[in-house]
Amino acid sequence: MAPLLPLALDRVTLEIGGTRIVSDFTLKLGAGTRTVIVGPNGAGKSMLLRLCHGLIAPTGGTIAWAGDPAGRQAMVFQRPAMLRRSVLANVAYGLKLRGVGRDERERRARDTLARVGLADIAARPARVLSGGEQQRVALARAWALAPEILFLDEPTASLDPPAAQAVESIVLAMAAEGTKVVMTTHNLGQARRIGDEIVFVHKGRIAERAAADAFFRAPATPEAAAFLKGELPW
Amino acid sequence: MQTFAEAFAAAAGLLADGDLRLFAIVLLSLEVSLSATLIAALIGLPLGAFVALARFPGRRTCVVGLNAMMGLPPVVVGLVVYLLLSRAGPLGGFGLLFTPGAMVFAQTILIAPILAALARQVVEDAWAEHGEQLRSLGASLPQSVATLLWDSRFALVTVVLAGFGRASAEVGAVMIVGGNIDGVTRTMTTTIALETSKGDLPLALGLGIVLIATVLAVNAAAAWLKETTARRYG
Prior knowledge:
The structure holds two protein chains of two kinds. By secondary structure, chain A is α/β, with parallel strands linked by helices. Chain A has a single domain (7-230), classed as Rossmann fold (3-Layer(aba) Sandwich). Helices cover 37% and strands 25% of the residues of chain A. Chain A has eight helices and nine strands. In chain A, strands 5-6-7-3-8-9 form a six-stranded mixed beta sheet, sandwiched between helices. Chain A has a three-stranded antiparallel beta sheet with strand order 2-1-4, with helices on one face. In chain A, helix 3 crosses helix 4. Chain A has helices spanning 45-53, 87-97, 102-115, 131-144, 161-176, 188-194, 212-217, 222-230; strands at 7-16, 19-29, 34-38, 60-65, 73-76, 149-153, 180-184, 197-202, 205-211. Chain B has a single domain, classed as MetI-like (MetI-like fold). Chain B is an all-alpha fold. The chains are: A alpha/beta, B mainly alpha. Chains A and B meet through helix 2 of A and helix 5 and helix 6 of B.
C-alpha cells in the first residue's frame, strides 16, 4: 500500500453562504510529527480539520493525499457522539462498519478499552458515562481502527483537568505507535505538551508554522505574539 | 347524565358477562390495528429515516407531502382502497374486499405516512447529533439509516403508538372496506357507529369505554417498556 502521508493542501478555500471562512490554506502534513493547530475562536481551526478529514469539500484549491485515505484516518470531536448501546458496542461499531467479524471486533474493542483504562465498564451504556469517560470511549473507537492519521477537534474543551490529562496521555500513546496526530486546541499548555510543531491560524489564514519550541519562545508574526500574550497559558 | 350512568353500567355488564361476541369484536379490532401498525412501521420508519438522511432533488417536496399525508381523511382512504379492491378494480382478483385483510390494508395506508413523517423528524434530530461521527467512520446511507433507527428506538416507540392510536380510533376506512359484517369485519368503532344510529346509546357508549380502556392499556404497556429500558441506556 502506498504511504498515506504527506497530506498536501494547496490554496484551499472555503466559502459558506458568501462568507469566506478559510482563505488560501497551503500546508503539507508529513508523518511522524504531532501537529497542533492553535488560534483564536473562529479562526478556522475546526474547518481546517474537517477539510483535511473530508467532512466538507473545499470551494477552491486542492487537498491531496499521497495514498488512498479510505479507512486509514479517524477523527475525534469536541463532543463525543455516543450511540445508545454499551461502551463495548460503541468501540466495536467502527470496526463493524468496516466489515470486521463479530468475534474479531469484540476482541479488538476489548483490547483498546483496556488501553484507555475503561475495560471494567465495557458493558455499561455509553450515554450515562461522564464527559471524560465518553471522550475516552471516542478515542478508543478511533484507536480500534488503527488509523494512520488522527484528527482531534478540541477534544478536551469541555473536560476538567484530570479528564483532559487522561485524553492527552491516550493521544500521546497513539502517536507513539506511529499515528500522525493533528489536533486543534485553545489551551496553550496542552499545545506545548502535545505539539512537535504548531500551526497558527488567524482570520482564516495560516499565519505561521513553526517547531513548538521556537513558536512559544519567539513567534515570528505579531499576530502570534499577541495571541500568546493574550491567552492564559494554563 | 342518565345515558352516561347507563353506559358505565352497560360497559360493566358487557365485561362482567364475558360476552363472547364482545370479546370477538375487541380481538378483531386489536388484530386489525396492530397488524396495520406493524406493517406500516416496517414501511414507514425506514422510509422516514431515508428521507431524513438522503439528499435528492425534490426532497423538500417529499417532506411536505409526507407531512400533509398525516392528515389523510380515513373515509377517502377507505373509498380509494374500496375501488382498488372491488371486483372491477386492479386488485380485485385477491378477493379481499369485506375481509379483515382489506381493513388492515386501508389502515396501513392511513398510518404509514404518519409513521414516516414522525420518524423523519426523530431521525433528523439524531443525525444532527451523530451525523459527522457516522460520516467520519465511513457509514454508508443504509448503514446510517439502520444505526439511527436503532439509536432512536425509544423515541420511535412513541411514534408507533401515535400510529396505533390513529388506526384503532378510525371508523371511516374500516367501515367502507370491511362493511361492518357481524362476526366477520365488525370492530369496536364500526359497532359504536352502528349502535348509535340504531339508538342503543348505552351499548355504544359502553363499547366506547372498552375501546378507550384497550388503547390505554396498550399505551401504558408500551410506555412502561420504554421507560424501563430508556432509563438504562440514557
